[in-house]
Amino acid sequence: MPRTTADRRAPPAGPGRRERNKRDKQNRIIGAARALFQSQGYGQTTLGQIAAAAGVGTGTLFLYASSKEDLVVLVFLDEMSGVVDASFKKRARPAAVLEQLQSFLHGIVAYHAKDLELARALMKELTFLSNPERTRSVTRVADAIIERIREILEWGVAQGEIDLSRIDLVARIMFSVFYQQQLAWLSGFLSREQLDDNLNAMLDHLLRG
Amino acid sequence: MPRTTADRRAPPAGPGRRERNKRDKQNRIIGAARALFQSQGYGQTTLGQIAAAAGVGTGTLFLYASSKEDLVVLVFLDEMSGVVDASFKKRARPAAVLEQLQSFLHGIVAYHAKDLELARALMKELTFLSNPERTRSVTRVADAIIERIREILEWGVAQGEIDLSRIDLVARIMFSVFYQQQLAWLSGFLSREQLDDNLNAMLDHLLRG
DNA sequence: TGATAAAACTGAATCTATTCATTTTTACCT
DNA sequence: AGGTAAAAATGAATAGATTCAGTTTTATCA
Fold this sequence. Notes:
The structure is a homodimer of 209-residue chains. Chain A is an all-alpha fold. In chain A, 72% of the residues lie in helices and 0% in strands. Chain A contains nine helices and no strands. Chain A has helices at 17-40, 47-54, 58-64, 68-89, 97-113, 116-127, 135-158, 167-186, 192-207. In chain A, α4 (68-89) runs parallel beside α7 (135-158). The longest helix of chain A is centred in the N-terminal third of the chain and has 24 residues, at 17-40. Chain A is elongated. The N and C termini of chain A lie far apart (74 Å). Chains A and B meet through α6, α7, α8 and α9 of A and α6, α7, α8 and α9 of B.
């Protein structure tokens, strides 16, 4: 059915064709990359495969991510945010502050444990960002974790369970400890059990103020 | 002067020709890599250049390091140990425990600050080791830092300046904090000033037990 | 001393991420 | 509608790390 003059509508208020195409393409790229990373492993997946699966040229990938590593962040950072939220909601409750913290953080660790190679690649790039444009997004996730820790601590103080004066500072220290211990685990310096033990001991000490 | 039968000595007790050659070659490789990394930058230096400068084939490099990243560790890990020792010796003294800790850790930061690109490459590979054979060496450096922190803390306790029950645990927490904050700085999430401020506040809090 | 096997070495070939000159698509204007 | 310039997309070309089949060196032993 050919379009006639009568078909003309008001200029579409929404995103134009160009922007829509870009989003579609980005979604295809992210979807293809996620599927391949998860089914074949990060290292085994080539950009050529991702481009083919997404139906774009290889060069096109670089319009959306600055490198293969950056692509991992593009693909999984949103998911990370979801994991943080979910793990916070699902944390052990009612329970002592220490148990809540452990439960929350272990939820994050459990997510990474499902695919260690991918977790390594993701954390590696999160830690050593190659694309400065991603800084804000990464900071947001880190801040979200710190904020969740802070909420748990405040709850403990309100319950009279613990007595901390500088909650913000303690929350940031706890995040540092969590982050570094998680890296040590992902890099093979610690077993999962050692990670749990260390975190347990360190958080417990920090709670005693 | 041609070698005669009379020249024959007892079988050399020391390393044989094979081992000596290997060491020579490794020294040449390490020297060439260090020189090029420092003069041109890590990213600009190719393995071809290193091999040429060391007078070996490119394939030979992979008999000594498992990758370009691993080569950085091979080249600079020894130096790191020296830096830790030197920084410990040169630390502010006599001074309060907090100042000694700051002085010690800032010495390490100052070393990295001399060449940020190299520091990034080194810390990236230390954190996400690709060559498992290097695990022991890396652990040794980390343990050395923790041990130095512990010594300073013990000195403080002996002086009656601080009152910490679990010194080992606190030392490990401090290392975690230091490590993570240093990564955040190297990755551009923190300025040098923020790094200093954060470390100062966190260490101070940890000292108050 | 010569023969033999193991170890070390080599650099050309391979494999992929990344770049870039060219082409295609889109938005905008008359 | 047609013309134009900017934006997006493309994939062949490039570059550089890594591999590997073949060569050289070293140690060992008859």
